[in-house]
Amino acid sequence: MRAGGNKMPDKDALVKHIPGEETQRLLTVEDLSVSFDTEKGSVRALFGVSFSMDAGETIGLVGESGCGKTITALSVMRLLASPPAKMDGGRILFKGRDLFALPEKRMCEVRGQEISMIFQEPMTSMNPVLTVGEQVAEVFTAHGICGKKEAAERAVEWLRKVQMPDPERRAKEYPHQMSGGMRQRAMIAMALALSPSLLIADEPTTALDVTIQAQIMALLREMRERERMAVLLITHDLGVVHDFADRTAIMYLGRIVEMAPTRELFAGPIHPYTQGLLASLPGASQTSRVLPSIPGTVPDLANVPPGCPFSPRCQHRQAAMKRFLSGETSTDELRDCDREDPPAFEFSPGHLAACHYQRRVCGES
Amino acid sequence: MSGNAVYRPDANEALLTLVNVYKTFPVRASFFSAEEVRVRAVDGVSLSLQPGKTLGLVGESGCGKSTMGKLAIRLLDPDSGTIRFEGKDMARLAGEELRGMRRRMQIIFQDPYSSLNPRMKVQDIVGEGWFVHGLARGRELRDKAALLLERVGLTAEARNKYPHEFSGGQRQRIGIARAIALSPRLIVADEPVSALDVSVQAQILNLLKGLQEEYGMAYLFVSHDLRVIRHVSDHVAVMYSGKVMELGPSEELFSRPSHPYTRSLLSAAPMLGGAPAEHIVLSGDIPSPVAPPPGCRFHTRCFRARKFCSECSPLLREVAPGRFAACHFV
Amino acid sequence: MSGQSMFADTLRRLSRNPLAVAGAVVILFFLVMALFPKCFSEHDPNRINILRILDPPSARHLLGTDDLGRDVLARMVYGARISLSVGFVAESIAIGIGLIVGLLAGYYGGRADAVLMRFVDIMLCFPSFFLILSVVAFIGPSIWNIMIIIGITGWMGVARLVRAETLSLKERDFVVAARAQGAGAARIMFRHILPNTLAPILVAATLGVAGAILVESSLSFLGIGVQPPTPSWGNILTAGKDNIEFAWWLSLFPGLAIFVTVLGYNLLGEGIRDAVDPRLKGR
Predict the structure, then answer these.
(1) B156 belongs to a structural domain
(2) Residue C9 and which of A31, A57, A277, C103 are 20 to 30 A apart at CA?
(3) Biggest alpha carbon distance in chain A?
(4) Domains identified in chain B, total number
């Protein structure tokens, strides 16, 4: 979310949130902007993303494909291939250290030991020619924690911790011999083996069946309590964050358009995009047979509209435009929507949204 | 254990009936062996679908729901069992008669990318059926294609473009246009919104609903997404490991699930409005379809399972008027 | 993006590959030469002049003369016509056979596939060059015979390629959809599957032309290919072999022409392969 508005003069105020201001921030992402070089020129993927999280906190980063949620995560891990990716601005502070200023060697130590990541499809992120046990053990040997023999024992121990059935036998199996759920368990064991203080989970259950999904989320919940780690959960599924995240950020076209404590976000969404997303979930309301839907589609990142990126699909903007064009109103009340990318605005403590309309209606009264 | 009536598909007036359908696929036992084993994809399923209604098939991967969809419109032949469409035994049809029947049953696919031929113009894709059946060609085909594309929410100009020029949601609209071009009475919708973004899903679901109201075709709607199934279906069949576990009217089944598997499915899908508040996390994995467990398919993961369940397979019996479940304990 | 943009995209990527462009320029150059020989040499390629036997390159005969006093440049210009058309026609025959066999084997599978592919295996067991040698010896060398024989001994690679593509394409949803619409086997094969295999076939064809030109040259060099006095690059070389000690130009220039043309086709073929490969496509 970009800084702006009278209520929030400085960036520190922006990244702060609800209580406990004195605790040291675990992770602060400030005004992160990333672009990619493509055949058709440079394409901006992140437009000043800012948020922060505390130790032990869980944040859900939700959005549709192409909204930049995975790019945000990879930036935190410093795993974006460059080129084609390019940092245009901003910084990422982890425990007060600027991650982009760290030499690559130090960053390697941060990865795995302090921040680790799990992915959507463990099959592609695991090595097919090594046994699962060897891969978990490698986490220890690669970071010089212990010798090979002890590492193998610890690996089995960790597989047991993630409730892998029959861990001694499973440790000797290859990834392709396991089911998707078991592979994801092994992946979680690898990610948590060095007790990181931040776990980034990128669509950890998207490739899994519903009942297996519930198992993995239950496991993540348990591990989060036991290891007292913070989790950055990236998903397109609002249902997954609903029960799991302390706070939720909704992303659209490379921006955080709304961020709030999860319960509050679901109970009273402010941004029209968030409202539309929640309303269009089938099955949530069984009263009407026609689902409320957001018109249009997510534009290509190469053709992001000027001003508010959501304005071409926004009912408020379209209604105001219609009123103005029909002469009902003499001024286009929402012309800012086409001119200026709306800054984040704090509607209630900890509840931020970036919308000109809502700010007019209820913000500055 | 009840002595209630075993489920028998209602053959009267039904558009589609499947009776005791079995389907297996050969697979190699392992990469290095030539030995073949058979995956039991659909293992004795009976269902029926009324004209103009939507039957939702829901289940996890490998439960056989997609195979069911392909069997229903004879893109696959069953190993045994009968499939009747408009009262005719599908297995007996061949040649011209089968080709004629194909006009009345169509399919919509999950993947909007692989379901459209990248080398064909949109008008030729949606007009394929007209061309093949000699219903329209040339100029007439182009005009009809334009009207059809407008009906599914695209512009008439779209007909001259190629599939790669469209987004996923628009491609799915093209796939829907192709399916309705021949005015079928049955459409198998195989995970039609699973590959789409949430905000586009709602648009496509509304389109499918609107088309059904307008043209009155029946949907066999296959999905793993309980929310989608609940929204679109009149009746729902819950499948697990090739068998139907529970069958009933959608609203009743979702508000008062009776089979333990249905209950755990619902509890695993968060935010389902009005879903029972119980919290069930199943242990274990979905059984391999090559060697499904004996007795009740679900007993390896069921929280109510007794020794008995691993020995005797429950039949799909009526547990309340119009509601059926295959469990010894309901 | 317009309807033609997929093709245009490929062309654009191809034009960014300097080696492929060089290959295309070479091929184009020889093509123009074959089409308009008069523009390149005013000499008659078959006019014998015993006063000018084995003249070295000079202002009058830019590339010298051969052992019968014929102008080498003229013979090479007319030879380009023969060599290139043998390459084209032979490869077209090969593609035609390979396409049909590959489509049938891939689409029908099962027994048809087994029979056809075993036939391919058998064809591949023969050392094809000696097969060609013996067939030519039997039916006699003529340009048409050469083309046909090179064609019918060179289709197996294409057949395997098309079969593999067909196997994967027939499982795609759009083919299933065509079946659901009631399309017959022929329509599915030729309207739905075939157009999607064209990109890899184009690559194979380009590389195949180079191979066919080489085979023709070798046959002509051995004296059982294109028969004198009709000029071809291969049989000019034959004359060069006999006089290699005192007439270097007679071997060098046709050899160079074959080398450059084959290289050109190979570079272009590889360029096309890179340009159509989706893995290299931009985001």
Answers:
(1) no
(2) C103
(3) 79
(4) 1
